[in-house]
């Protein structure tokens, strides 16, 4: 079976803009690109990434031009956005199972399950909240 990666925004942002975990994110994503590994994310991930980039501008961490360049780089990634009706129901079930406060993280997990993907995140707190933690979940810093 071909390898598939579901990339959390906490992996995509440090790939696009300099911050903690940028080196690890770059290695993971560039390896996926050079190896033609399928990369997926829930359909709303583009808005989540764009929102984080805009917040970085408001906080003075990026200029507008830098954030725009990051968003353009993001749009050039061969990232497949997944939007399936069953994904929504699965995300709800996962959020309920793990008592997650929102569906955002659950949607990434559901996307991973539907696509048979490894889910990559830099969010240690999120991983610790998953009990039991699904076998397909990977922490970026352990790449």
Q: Topology, please?
A:
Elements: E1 4-7, H1 9-16, H2 22-34, E2 38-42, H3 45-58, H4 64-76, E3 79-82, H5 85-97, H6 104-115, E4 118-121, H7 124-129, E5 137-139
Parallel strand pairs: 1-2, 1-4, 2-3, 4-5
Helix pairs in contact: 1-2, 3-4, 5-6
Q: How would you describe what is shown here?
A:
This protein has 143 residues and is of the alpha/beta class. 55% of the residues lie in helices and 14% in strands. It is built from 7 helices and 5 strands, in the order E-H-H-E-H-H-E-H-H-E-H-E. Strands 3-2-1-4-5 form a 5-stranded parallel beta sheet. Helix 7 (124-129) links the parallel strand 4 (118-121) and strand 5. Helix 5 packs across helix 6 (104-115). The longest helix has 14 residues, at 45-58. The protein starts with a strand and ends with a strand. The model has no long low-confidence stretch (mean pLDDT 96).
């Amino acid at each position: 079976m071909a390898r598939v990666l579901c990339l959390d925004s906490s992996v995509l942002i440090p790939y696009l803009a300099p911050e903690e975990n940028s080196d690890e994110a770059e290695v993971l994503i560039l390896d996926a690109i050079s190896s033609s590994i399928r990369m997926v994310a829930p359909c709303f991930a583009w808005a989540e990434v764009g929102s984080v980039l805009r917040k970085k501008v408001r906080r003075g961490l990026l200029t507008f031009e830098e954030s725009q360049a990051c968003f353009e780089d993001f749009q050039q990634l061969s990232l497949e956005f997944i939007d399936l009706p069953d994904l929504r129901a699965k995300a709800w079930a996962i959020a309920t199972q793990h008592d997650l406060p929102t569906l955002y993280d659950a949607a990434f997990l559901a996307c991973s399950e539907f696509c048979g993907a490894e889910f990559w995140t830099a969010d240690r707190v999120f991983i610790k909240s998953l009990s039991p933690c699904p076998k397909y979940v990977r922490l970026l810093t352990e790449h």
